[in-house]
Design brief:
single chain, mainly alpha
Length: 107
């Protein structure tokens, strides 16, 4: 599907600041954040997946974005990471050590 095609596009974008690859990964990061909110709210449109799985998908997407944008100081990427970092402080018991590590490594 589209995600698998996207993964092959991202494969060669490491540290390149490739705008297409960054846009693709940022899109999926936003999708995972939206799905996680839907699951947390018990929305009928929510996918049949649990929050920890979506959190792991979000972590992987954020790490991929940080690899693509490494060394650029891209403000959009840093703002996204800052937003996710703030979320770590305000989510009571909902995140694991691995989630904290993924966000910290991405920063």
């Amino acid at each position: 599907g589209e995600l698998q095609f996207g993964a092959s596009r991202v494969n060669y974008a490491q540290g390149s600041a490739n705008a297409d690859a960054a846009e693709l990964v940022e899109h999926y990061t936003n999708v995972f954040m939206k799905l996680k909110r839907q699951v947390a709210a018990g929305s009928p449109q929510a996918p049949p997946v649990d929050r920890p799985t979506l959190e792991t998908c979000l972590d992987v997407a954020v790490l991929a974005l940080s690899i693509i944008m490494a060394g650029t100081g891209n403000l959009n990427t840093l703002r996204l990471l800052r937003r996710l970092r703030r979320r770590l402080d305000s989510t009571p018991g909902g995140l694991t050590y691995g989630n904290h590590m993924a966000i910290s490594m991405a920063l």
